[in-house]
Amino acid sequence: MVSLKDYQSDIDIKWCPGCGNFGILAAMKDALVSMNIAPEKLLIISGIGQAANTPHYLKCNMFHTLHGRALSIATGAKIANHDLTVVMNCGDGDCYGEGGNHFISTVRRNPDLTLLVHNNKVYGLTKGQASPTSDLGMVTKMQHHGVISESFSPLTVALALGAGFVARGFSGDEKHLSQLIQEGMKYKGLSLIDIMQPCVSFNTVNTFAWYKSRAYYLEEANHDPGNFEKALELSRQWGDQIPVGILYKKEKPHFTDRIHSLKAGSLISRTYNSAKLDQFLARI
Ligand SMILES: Cc1ncc(C[n+]2csc(CCOP(=O)(O)OP(=O)(O)O)c2C)c(N)n1
Ligand code: SF4
Fold first, then answer.
1. Residue nearest to atom 20 of ligand 1 (CA)
2. Confidence (pTM)
3. CATH topology of domain 4-283
4. What confidence score (pLDDT) does residue 256 get?
């Protein structure tokens, strides 16, 4: 049986005391242990940022890539080895800003990956500039007169692109978040879990208390995750009431199932024929 000790990393955590990332890390560990996923069967891919440092604090396979590129690297890893559970830890700037185009392509492709977006609504690592999810008018050290762009709504965009698993979590409720992560990892396809993550150093608006007083649980509201129109409506709900839980869930073919040449199995399970490759290269 896998235990928390198996995931214990000896790297010192560099996050600010009280950062919402701690709740996400705890929920991830709880989910991995509850699902009995061994560290050698797990691969975490991340880009750049405070969120992207998460895999350093878990003892498992990891790949720390460029800003915004976690999704494409993760897709490649899953093609190579279908047996790995592949999770991505991204920031909101990382995933929806620098990696915005990768986000769009990956949702459309639907690879079997779990995408955790630590959405603190700012660029944390570079000291608090506005990110794509900062609310219109939000004042930061850089945006002195307030953010002038409409806030990006990842859940709405994902639904519009045909995503099959769309959820919102809260880092202030580790138990609930662990359940969501487990559901996401069980789902065959891309599971997007956008997580409300307070940045205690640079976002003085969206605090733990701010979220706690607004979050309500979709399970308690008897929401049917099969109802696309309702999910779309809920994805736009923000302000006094914020829905948390699975907005939408639908089974659909995933990326590796759709690639003809992968029907015979993962790339790592194939034998490599160098003579055939040489013949092919000689022809071009
Ligand atoms: C292509 C590129 N653009 C900008 C940067 C600078 N940069 C590094 S981290 C970061 C902000 C990260 O913010 P976010 O993804 O929201 O993660 P957080 O640190 O808030 O967890 C930026 C802009 C970079 N490294 N690469
Ligand atoms: S700057 Fe914000 S996101 Fe980064 S570690 Fe500190 S509190 Fe967390």
1. 124
2. 0.96
3. Rossmann fold (3.40.50)
4. 87
